[in-house]
Amino acid sequence: MPDMLSLVAVYVFLLLILFALRLPIGLALALVGTLGFVFFLDPGTAGKAIAMKLHSSLYNFTITAIPLFVLMAEIVARGGGSKVLYDAITPVAERLLPGGLIHANIVTCAMFGAVCGSALGGTAAVAGVAMPELKKRGYNPAFALGSLAAAGPLALTIPPSMDYIIFGALTGTSVGKLFIAGIIPGILLAGLMMLATLATVKFQPELVPRRPKEMLAYASYIVTVGKALPLLLLALSIIYSIYGGIATPTEAAAIGVGVAVVITLVYRQLNWRRFLEAVGATVRITATLLFLYVGASIYAVSLANVGLIALIKDTFLALPAVPLATAAIMLVGYTFMGMFIDGLSMILIATPITFPIFIALGFHPIWVGVIVVLMGEIGCITPPVGVTLFLLQGMSGEDPLSIAKGAIPFFIALMAGAIILLFFPVLTTWLPSYMV
């Protein structure tokens, strides 16, 4: 078996070189995996292993949920779903909570995430509706955009998340259980971000305008919230059908597409042009995700066949530290990686290496999936390569470092959530344990 230094030189340094050359991540992963096979095994074995992995990865029933969930999210976004949610939450948050529309940003992103599953998609959809209102009311731009940058990626933790599907396909973990496991952490993270908002506004009240003094009648609150009820029912029906064993994630996604079409038609926002745009966007996004997944599959099987995963696992297990401390070290590594690559790429690159270590340390695979996806979520707002920071820069013209500064309270909240989940893994495994 090759020594560890040679393996690391090929798999890590070559990967960094290809990234520096701006090669697409999926292609870079596939190329590194193939070269690793060729360097350390014979070409015949490499060809057979790669061919078998290509076949098994593309004929995986789990990944058929991806295009359906993407289509559902695109239909809801183009059918005015984010605006309906934001308009429903705004009057309640503005009049009842210190911080006003910052809370509306967080809650809307969390609720939209329940029918979206994409960090960039959720952030863009809600920001497009929220930014004009935030500007009109005089909110501090950095703080307001920072809340959107941090809350948009809640779609990764809250089901149905594309990252859960990819993680489940890579590791053989139940996607349905991952979806259900994300419910409590998603609520926890949104709550911590709202607490961070209250604390920030308490010490820096100049960041937000004063709350309106006039109060709406209770009937008005009921009407505004009622407008968002169909979308809430869509999200709850998907979760319940999976939790109750009525449908697989793929079947639930197919039903969700049909319901999303009906809801957006009721809102009178969906037409043929927007529907075809949603289908076109679905094809592009799905092709990108599948290309990444296939590249990561080749990379993962190559790591396993040449023995690098076993070597790294043995190294970590030999550390004189309790499993919790070792897990904390790996989460720090994930945080560092998140500064330079996006969350999904981080999952694709690191999961084949870290997942066996977490399992060997005694951690539940469902917990591993949730915590790894959460670390990718945190990476969305960590410079210099925070993807939601640059997305909002393009939409607002604000400097990404300024947005990152505004997101600091929410970064602290997300890190606090990761620490809580590290010490209380039952928050992720309790609900899945009752699944049919």
Describe the structure.
With 436 residues, the protein is mainly alpha-helical. The protein has one domain (4-434). 77% of the residues lie in helices and 0% in strands. The chain contains 24 helices and no strands. It has helices at residues 4-20, 25-40, 43-58, 65-78, 81-96, 101-113, 119-137, 141-151, 154-157, 162-171, 175-181, 183-203, 218-227, 229-243, 249-266, 272-306, 308-317, 323-337, 343-360, 365-379, 387-396, 400-406, 408-423, 426-429. The protein is globular and about 75 Å long. The model has no long low-confidence stretch (mean pLDDT 85).
Keywords:
single chain; 436 residues; mainly alpha; 24 helices; 0% strand; globular
Largest sheet: none
Give the overall pLDDT as a whole number: 85
The count of β-strands is 0
Helix proportion of residues, in percent?
over 70%
* Count of helical regions: 24
Radius of gyration equals 22 Å
Structural class: mainly alpha
- Taken together, the total number of domains comes to 1
Distance between the termini: 44 Å
Please indicate the percent range of residues in DSSP E strands (runs of 2 or more). under 5%
Q: Which geometry do the CA atoms define?
A: globular
The ordered H/E elements are: HHHHHHHHHHHHHHHHHHHHHHHH
Which stretches are poorly predicted, pLDDT < 50 over at least 5 residues? none
List the helices and strands and how they pair.
Layout: H1 4-20, H2 25-40, H3 43-58, H4 65-78, H5 81-96, H6 101-113, H7 119-137, H8 141-151, H9 154-157, H10 162-171, H11 175-181, H12 183-203, H13 218-227, H14 229-243, H15 249-266, H16 272-306, H17 308-317, H18 323-337, H19 343-360, H20 365-379, H21 387-396, H22 400-406, H23 408-423, H24 426-429
